[in-house]
Prior knowledge:
- This protein is an alpha/beta fold and about 240 residues long.
- It is built from eleven helices and ten strands.
- The chain has a domain at about 1-75 and about 155-160 and about 185-235: Rossmann fold, CATH 3.40.50.
- Helix 5 runs antiparallel to helix 7.
Amino acid sequence: MLSLESIVAGYGDAVALSDVSLTIAAGELVAVVGANGAGKTTLVNVIARLLPMRAGRLTWEGADLGRLPPQALGERGIALIPEGRRLFGAMSVEENLDMGCYRRSARALREEGLERVYGMFPILRERRGQMAGTLSGGQQQMVAIGRALMARPRLLLIDEPSLGLAPSVVQQVFEVIRTVNAQGVSMLLIEQNVALALQVADRGYVLENGRIVAQASASALLERPDIRAAYLGGV
């Protein structure tokens, strides 16, 4: 479905990604893991067309995405859950969710989409009229996930979903990620919590200093001594 070939990208004179290649097949949950500053968010921003590539090729179902504006990705079934959630704080929960179904095809299924989101996150039904900026961090992440699901995506780009959340909330969020993937939605999961990401993923890529240094099935990466030593405390 999604293919990146030899991507180079950066900011100003700095190169943040160098010769990065990866693929996501239909229905796969692929994790990109690595330390803070490895280039993970830069990678997802390139895919989401928020940052231009300097070189390389980005394709979705065989079509070149390299010159498309960010808003065109929604029409192709790609949605982003950004790092830090980026909600509209002065708008209600439901108004934020509505922002996800701006496409005509998704708008026609708005009520069905809301029921799906509220079924996954019952607390959001209770808070549907509350301003999003007054929610807890975990509840805001639920809204961010729900907003993306309202677009009825076939590929979800998820950037650091565990960031700043309590462990109990992180577990709930990752259970929803598992559930949505099991429903057939392909996913690219960008995550600093290596153990958690590889526990839910089918395959994984390790990003260091803007380069892919390892790729394998998630279970195989979890068993590698060098990965365990570098990211899992050697346990």
